[in-house]
Amino acid sequence: MAKITIRFPRVPKIFRGFSLKQSRTWGAILMLTGQQPVWSKKDYAVLSREGFQKCMTAYSCVSLISQTCAGIPWQLFSTPRTEREKVKELKKHELLDLMKRPNPFEGQSAFMERAISFYKLAGNSYIERVGPNPGKPKELYSLRPDRVKVDPGDTMGLVKGYIYSAGGKKEEFYDGEILHIKSFHPLDDWYGLSPIEVAASGIDISNMALSWNYKLLQNDARPSGTLSTDKNLDEP
Predict the structure, then answer these.
(1) N or C of the chain: less Cβ packing under 10 Å?
(2) Total Cβ atoms within 10 A of residue 22
(3) Using one digit for the tens of pLDDT, what is the confidence trace for 147-199?
């Protein structure tokens, strides 16, 4: 019987891959060769990088939703004070002006795309109001969700405020200064559940499969292993 030898390149145990007005906010995949898979870490930076920046499917989904929402025109209606009055659409109003130009750096479309994208990536979207307190907001800013932390205070179930951290500095906001839009989370009282986190395992598989196929093509579709024998193999 012919002796058959199977040779594969030596594989290390661990492969390491990824290891203005007055807005106060302006100014990994590890793959082991053991039995247990190691998925991407469930933090915003990793999920955004692996799920949005590297996965074309997730990127397309988030972009389609956010850009579609950004293109929806805003309409404002007056509330009838009596039964005889009818609902009337307001064509001119300071709220419409605010939404048309939320801040000096963004128009309505850019602002909405940013806010909705954050919501779809993190399950949380934070909008800062800038203006007199009390008073009407003069500007709106969409904040990066990984920089915002909820301050629950001492009262169960109530939010005391929010803490924004960036560049080694922290800014504290009371509850009325931040609009927190969040998705439902069955186990978290303060933060929403990220859709990308739920889909992370599937995104990891997609990214790894794409990377494997790309490397195979670079190797002229030759698998990284050989089959050899010391005798000729003849058909039976």
Answers:
(1) C
(2) 10
(3) 999 988 765 667 889 999 998 999 999 888 999 999 999 988 889 999 988 88
The number of distinct structural domains making up the chain is 1
Among 91, 92, 115, which Cα is nearest to 102's?
Answer: 115
Kindly report the number of other CB atoms within 10 A of residue 179's CB atom: 15
Does 231 map to a domain? Answer: no
Range of the domain at 130: 14-19+28-214
Q: Is the pLDDT of residue 109 over 90?
A: yes
Half-sphere exposure of 187 (CA within 13 A, CB side): 1
Average pLDDT, the chain: 80
pTM here is 0.72
Q: How many residues does the chain have?
A: 236
Cβ pair 153, 163 in contact under 8 A = no
Instruction: Please give the pLDDT value at position 27.
Output: 55
Region 216-221 average pLDDT:
75
